[in-house]
């Protein structure tokens, strides 16, 4: 018999640690703030241990259906905390260099992670919205921490777009609640499946508005305008955090909506996913072609990858969500490594923001250049990296549902999209740097982790079955 505390213990640890760090910072001198870093990392390790133990715990629904504890939520939380752990490891030295090694950074990250974990386990729309807002609000403050004009513009654009998306989401929820009288996700799904409530057009309108909130969190078209600006305007550690960890929470959001709430509305969901996927893939790849700023390039690249994630949702349900999970898994680790390399080549005075900053990296540091090439090949979907199988499984799934023309269109855009990744590789191995290249932004340990990250991407690309099986939980 398990105590109910074990189910919410990860969230409690994050919440308590965020409050503790905020208070602890008042009593610690500036030269001992490294203790805060180890407190945050220690809490992550403790949560990973709890989640590993929780794998044996049966599915449970708490707080009158508001909180769902199942194998899906455990896996996503484990992956989320693991990625956050690596983000902090990669960022430690660079946070010192740019004077952002402050308790506020860690507290805001922890609060955002708490929102993500709540979102992943939400069982009704109230908990869902609570997690959604707690995820977003700290990110607005993180973006503006370095207090410059570009960051202010990016944060304001993100805030305005987020407010609009939240309003649309709440409007959709109000329509669904007005027709069903329920806020529980499973209860709404039951009424749609078993009753004739689906015949009412209001449910479809509600679905469209709720889907808009999902589109924003992924950064898909038409709610994509904030992505390149936020990627460019944020400090690299914040870009690293925003570009990886929230994608896992967005996947959890998609699962709760598409599988737990509207699983019966298959055709309508497929239509919305395909439209958003096509637009995101087209806009992301076309606009990335003209970018010289590597952070904006990776921002548009993220929009294109979100298009693939939406294609993976086609035909997905509670028993078949492994393709989308595998794609997000591979994308997050590939982006983690790519932004880690960008951070490594940055210094206190200059970020490696532009493609010419990578000139000669592969010639001066061959191993480092090869690892970056692996990350870029994975993002482009070129074998033998993990990104190839991630895209292959998505395309195979679409073919099984008869979307042959769509697959041809995706392949053409993917070939076009590979060009801007190859520009970076060309700069690393065929251009000569005028000012030399130094690895200053990461510690030696973080440098080793980036190399292991690249090896892991290569390993998954050659032996994807274990990770795919893991994503099928």
UniProtKB/TrEMBL annotation:
Q: What transmembrane ranges does the database entry give?
A: 6-28, 35-55, 67-91, 103-120, 126-146, 158-177, 197-216, 236-257, 269-290, 297-315, 321-342, 354-380, 400-422, 442-467
Q: What is its EC number?
A: 7.1.1.-
How does the UniProt record describe the way this protein sits in the membrane?
Answer: Multi-pass membrane protein
Q: What is its main location?
A: membrane
Q: Does the keyword Transmembrane helix apply?
A: yes
Output the superkingdom of the source species.
Bacteria
User: What are the protein's GO molecular function terms?
Assistant: NADH dehydrogenase (quinone) (non-electrogenic) activity; NADH dehydrogenase (ubiquinone) activity; quinone binding
GO biological process: what's one of them? ATP synthesis coupled electron transport
Broadest EC class?
translocase
Q: Which Pfam families match?
A: Proton_antipo_M (PF00361)
Subcellular localization: Cell membrane; Endomembrane system; Membrane
Where does it sit, as one GO cellular component term? plasma membrane
What's its catalytic activity? a quinone + NADH + 5 H(+)(in) = a quinol + NAD(+) + 4 H(+)(out)
NADH:quinone oxidoreductase/Mrp antiporter transmembrane domain residues are 122-416
Q: Which UniProt keywords apply?
A: Cell membrane, Membrane, NAD, Oxidoreductase, Quinone, Translocase, Transmembrane, Transmembrane helix, Transport, Ubiquinone
Under the subunit heading, UniProt states: NDH-1 is composed of 14 different subunits. Subunits NuoA, H, J, K, L, M, N constitute the membrane sector of the complex.
Please give the family membership noted in the entry: Belongs to the complex I subunit 2 family.
Which NCBIfam families does the annotation name?
Answer: NDH_I_N (TIGR01770)
Protein purpose:
NDH-1 shuttles electrons from NADH, via FMN and iron-sulfur (Fe-S) centers, to quinones in the respiratory chain. The immediate electron acceptor for the enzyme in this species is believed to be ubiquinone. Couples the redox reaction to proton translocation (for every two electrons transferred, four hydrogen ions are translocated across the cytoplasmic membrane), and thus conserves the redox energy in a proton gradient.
Which named protein is this?
NADH-quinone oxidoreductase subunit N
Q: Which organism is it from?
A: Candidatus Azoamicus ciliaticola
